[in-house]
Protein 1
Amino acid sequence: MNARETQQEDVYDDLTSRAFLHSSTLSPLSATHVSPSSLKSSSAPPTRSPLALPWPPLESPSSETCMINGIWRKIRGRFNSYGAAGSGAIHRQAILSLFAQIGQMYHLTWFGISDFGNENVELVQSIADLQFPKAAILGNHDSWTTPKFSAKTKDRIQLQLESLGDEHVGYSRLDFSELKISVVGGRPFSCGGEHLYRRKLLSARYGVHDMEGSARRIYNATLGTPEDNLVILLAHNGPTGLGSNLNDICGKDWSVGGGDHGDPDLAQALSRLKDSSNLSIPLIVFGHMHKELAYRAGLRKMIVVGDDETIYLNGAIVPRVKPVTVSHEQGAAQQSEGTLRAFTLVEIVDGRVARIAETWVSVLKDGGAAVAEELVLFDGKPLG
């Protein structure tokens, strides 16, 4: 999160608002975790059928409600002890829900760009226990009070990393063979800018002492990526080079005159990958930089498409959950309290990013859910 967050009241939101809109099956996809020290390729993915279906069929309100409620029921029971609507809370988290189409079915992969909370081990464990494909990277709030690893006991950062296991992709790669997608992680615990945040943690666990070493670790994580896979880079903060105005995707909105608050190591790794490899890297996903600018100065640009058609996507919508009251028109008039929950949805078809939408879902206390609003950010080209 950015520098102004220490002055803000904690805003909590809900995991399940970013974990549905899936096909009717929730069978886990196979995934292979690869660290730079053990470069193993996943098995050859199956051949996909021609991709003919459009964007997940949300045109019909009935099918839309069915899809949402079905996945809601599968997930909500895990979180009865965590707050609103019987589900868990995630602190200021940027989420990407990725649809990839295989034959005649859509599959969802859930990406957590953090922050999960101020070292909220219990929540991270609950997320790790969810049985669907996912990848995550810890952010600066996930290392909020721990500057270095404890030599005597397992600290809360170690417990979070153990909970996520291979699904934490910091400086590593997770291959989803069915989807022909590889997720490569950027630097964990990033706070943005030139400062190497939590240097002692990075040094002890990853052997990283400076930005150059960090860029090298990100680059090395891509080595051995299956030839047919496209690569998605998952980071807590975006790279430098995307603008320095207040409202740019990684621009300093709390500083007079703005400035580029991107991660230089991520930019270095990307530049080297584009110069020295034939990997397809259509999408860079991150959070950290809030959509709403400091001092109510407007809204941030949340998507950038580079000259090489690489898409840079920021998912940091804060607050992600808003209270709402819904009126029922049929029968006796009544009010039902609920929430609006935001998540970012990406559709990839035939190895290309086809559509990106910021989607708000209305969730009622009785368990009902429906898409309330959708802001399309990309539909073959950036919109808005």
Protein 2
Amino acid sequence: MSGSWPMSGEGRVPPGQRGRCSSPDRRGRAELGLQHLFNLAMSSPEIASLSWGQMMVKGCSTTYKDCKVWPGGSRTWDWRETGTNHSPGVQPADLEEVVKKGVKTLVIGRGMSEALQVPASTVDYLKKNGIDVLALQTEKAVKEYNALVAQGVKVGGVFHSTC
């Protein structure tokens, strides 16, 4: 999953703006059946690439540093929204948006060096909502997330792409 891609600047989100892709690419919609469109919109998007400080989601032109993904969309994970830091780490407030999308499993990418903490209170929040949680080093988290997507699991995730 490691690697990089050309850095043309295209698709980058200026600081302070939240990148968002509401659904996977739907070119050729007229040719698709209604049920297929529904399934496409409700499936979790694959993470197409990951390298230090950069992530891309399939069907989305935005380059993310940290991102949230859920069935039907993705957006920038802006830590300033909830005051998140490496310690104490991921808070329930960071996950509420993804939880509300009805995910059954949530994958947390803790960073390339696993600097981002996941407190027990955050894991408890997810379990109380009936959600399975995996908190892994980000490269491993992306592989696991993409495997769950391929299996058709209603999966969401939050991923930190640096330390």
Protein 3
Amino acid sequence: QTIRMNKAALVVLLVAVTSVVCEEDTTWQVGVGSANPGGALVHGRANIPLHKDDNSRLDANVHGSRVFGGPLDGQHSLGAGLQYEHKSGQDLRVGLDSLNQGGTLLHGRASTPLHMDDNGRLDANVHGSRVFGGPFDRQQTVGGGLDYEHRSGLHGGLDATNTRGYGTTYSATVGGSRPLGAGTFSIDGGLVKRPDSSSMAGQVMGTYKVQW
């Protein structure tokens, strides 16, 4: 979920991610990347299974991040959430995150498949968020989009998100992934059009995941 959590946005250009799968499918992820302009972004995430059967699964997660160096030094976030997945392809996520300048962000997202076959899938999603407390109190967003995945590793998406009192932000992403050595390497690119700018902003992110 993306909203204007801070006055200065973190743009992650390159992220190296290592995942460790422990007993009972608990997954740990740690990443280090660059935060624009200057500095390093360190983030971590743990996914903890709560329930799993032949039809569905429910996971909890905790996550956090912090910027070291540069003008954004010290900015940080902590959060937790729940994710429900059904074998039909439906997915529901809710979460709470602390904001660096005070307040708590409540956010949710639901997706459902529009088309699924052996080659890939196309999903539709809706999402929303609201801030409670702090300087961004009552700021809220609502939006929706499309996500596509192909078995070749190609993936992409379109999204429109309206922030109350700010306007609508449009974004598009495309990327690909493939096995590389002991893990999987992915590269993604995106374009964003914000209501306060007449130009498009772009970013590129590379990710390498290893599981053992």
Protein 4
Amino acid sequence: MWISRFPRSEIVVQTVRCSSSQFPTSAGASRMLQRLALRRIRDECDLKLKDINYDDSLFYKNLYDHQTTNYAILSAQYGNLSWEYNLLKDEYVDDRIKLRNAIVECVNRLPAEQPAPAADPSDAMSNQLA
């Protein structure tokens, strides 16, 4: 195992060339440079370093992808339920209208009641006395 020791008074500067794709922002290019530099130092010096920011970014990217998939499934289920609800609501309204029309038709078919003949009060009294 090769271990390099640098005196504290010296400043160590190393240039790392990044030949990967260009980033639209300087922050993305800077992060990529940092990852490459860290990887190179880790490989050359046999260090056990973890790039926590990169690991976290992978974790959150996977979590985001998972949540995006869940959202797509839930959105599709909501669309199906909404469609079924509207269909059932329309059928329910149509059935209510048909029932109301059927009731009105039945009421119209009933014969009108004949008015009771007017009775003489004298007839009522004679029935009670008899």
